[in-house]
UniProtKB/TrEMBL annotation:
One Pfam entry name: FA_desaturase
Classification lineage: Bacteria, Bacillati, Actinomycetota, Actinomycetes, Mycobacteriales
A single GO BP: lipid biosynthetic process
Name of the protein: Fatty acid desaturase
PANTHER family membership: DELTA(5) FATTY ACID DESATURASE C-RELATED, FATTY ACID DESATURASE 2
Signal sequence coordinates: none
Cellular component per GO, a single term: membrane
Domain called Fatty acid desaturase: residue spans: 75-354
Top-level taxonomic group: Bacteria
Alphabetized GO MF terms: oxidoreductase activity, acting on paired donors, with oxidation of a pair of donors resulting in the reduction of molecular oxygen to two molecules of water
InterPro entries noted in UniProt: FA_desaturase_dom (IPR005804), Fatty_acid_desaturase (IPR012171)
Length: 431
């Protein structure tokens, strides 16, 4: 099940964790002190390229309804440009700007409090569910709603229920309409549904009015996005190609939105649900210090590897461990930060979960499919499964912990979490 004692799981003493936190604090200060015009030029170039792509996509969309190869070429160009524009606006711009990564520039155009992104999800609601609930309580069961988004079972800490048999189906629906999944996340629909089925007994008197107020905001934002993408801009193509122009322009927008939704799903799931992205219990964070928070972020997040283009298109969220350590530092610095964080992980013999994007994503789908079944059909133990570990994976047959915190071998090398995980895997393979 989920980790209840992070220090024991990590094989670190209290002094080790404090020292780890000091090194990560020093790295933060280094980046903060180094921010300047180079970073500002970077984000302005990204904004410019995104706006050029979106404008080109809208212009090409005007001719998408023309007959023959010209119409087909215009449609393809429109869909491609809009897909790029929506992916960049969602990941490298919207997500990162609303984390406050560029607030230090004091530019109201790209400030976290003023940015409203090109998505069905209301930015103010997203900042609460994501910036606060998810990043503060990363992978903490019963507090982080991103663990399954209220509908998917991604850890055995979520008790199995019959509706979970369709886990993979829910995941496909979520993937194709990811912007809408994020839009309704703040509503906590599963809680409201369960309360409604129980006659509303679980909801306090003020909860239903609050739910209705939130629902109004959500529906208003969805309506605005729908009107923009599927009514306003397609209507501009009508004078050129009539109803065919309207339909094909709308289709180009739908294609771009779907590309953005699927890619968003890939980047986020690769960062949170591959093997070894750990889960934690509520009790563990009651007295959590900043160094302990750092450690939880390192153990609870996962990276994926790829080219610089891949990282750019993902909003640099392939560096999710670094993003969770420093969510408000400029994303263009994450590649450098990653090299330093990995050195720190090596120093303390901590695991650093990363791998090719295809493997990370395949593992998330395997977990979603596997956990659609009741626990009695699962082979791995509840404390040492690929998707869920606890400190009990290091207990012996009598249930006694075998963890030695801060252990140093005869050669002066630290023997911590990573070494013990490797030794356990080798021993299991020999059995």
């Amino acid at each position: 099940m989920a980790i209840t004692d992070i220090a024991e799981y990590a094989h670190l003493t209290d002094a080790d964790i404090e020292a780890l936190g000091a090194e990560l604090d020093a790295l933060r200060k280094e980046i903060e002190d180094g921010r300047g015009e180079t970073d500002a030029r970077y984000i302005r170039r990204v904004i410019k390229s995104q706006r050029i792509a979106e404008t080109a996509g809208r212009v090409f969309g005007l001719g998408a309804g023309m007959k023959g190869w010209k119409g087909k070429a215009a449609w393809a160009a429109s869909a491609a440009c809009l897909s790029y524009a929506k992916v960049i606006e969602n990941n490298e711009l919207g997500h990162n700007i609303m984390h406050g990564q560029w607030d230090w520039m004091n530019d109201p155009e790209i400030h976290s409090t003023t940015w409203e992104w090109d998505s069905a999800c209301d930015s103010s609601f997203w900042r609460h569910t994501h910036n606060y609930m998810h990043h503060k309580y990363t992978n903490v069961t019963d507090l982080d709603d991103d663990i399954g988004y209220g509908i998917l079972r991604v850890t055995r800490d979520q008790p199995w229920e019959p509706y979970m048999l369709f886990n993979p189906v829910y995941n496909v629906i979520l993937m194709l309409g990811f912007q809408y999944g994020k839009a309704v996340q703040h509503l906590e629909l599963m809680n409201a549904l369960k309360a409604a089925l129980n006659g509303g007994a679980q909801y306090r008197e003020h909860d239903w009015p609050e739910f209705r107020n939130r629902l109004k905001v959500v529906l208003t934002k969805i309506a605005k996005q729908t009107a923009k993408d599927y009514v306003l801009f397609p209507a501009m193509a009508v004078p050129i190609a009539g109803s065919a122009g309207f339909r094909r322009s709308a289709l180009a927008n739908m294609t771009a939105n779907t590309v953005r939704n699927v890619w968003d799903h890939v980047t986020i799931f690769c960062a949170h649900f591959p093997d070894d992205a750990e889960k934690f219990t509520v009790e563990e964070i009651d007295r959590e210090t900043m160094p302990q928070w750092y450690l939880r972020q390192m153990l609870g997040s996962a990276n994926f590897e790829g080219s610089s283009t891949l990282h750019f298109l993902s909003g640099h969220l392939g560096r999710q461990i670094e993003h969770h350590l420093y969510p408000d530092l400029p994303s263009n610095r994450y590649n450098y930060i990653a090299s330093r964080v990995r050195e720190i992980a090596d120093k303390y013999d901590l695991t650093y979960t990363t791998g090719p994007i295809w493997r990370q994503y395949a593992q998330t789908w395997r977990t979603v499919a596997k956990l659609s079944l009741p626990d009695r059909f699962l082979l791995a133990t509840a404390d040492n499964a690929p998707e869920t570990h606890s400190e009990k994976r290091f207990h012996d047959a009598t249930g006694t912990s075998t963890v030695v915190k801060g252990d140093i071998d005869a050669y002066g090398n630290r023997r911590g979490l990573r070494s013990r995980v490797r030794e356990t895997a080798q021993r299991t393979a020999r059995q």
